[in-house]
Amino acid sequence: MRRVGKPKEPSGRVRFLSDEERARLLDACRESRNTYLYAVVMVALSTGMRRGEIMNLRWDQVDLNQEVIRLLAQETKNNTARSIPLTGPALDALRDLPKSKMGSPKVYVFASPNANGKEKPIDIQTAWKAALQRAQIEDFRFHDLRHTTASYLAMSGASLAVIGEVLGHKTQQTTQRYAHLTESHVHDVVRSMNAKVFGRDASEEVTIK
Question: Does 185 qualify as catalytic in the annotation?
Answer without folding.
Answer: no
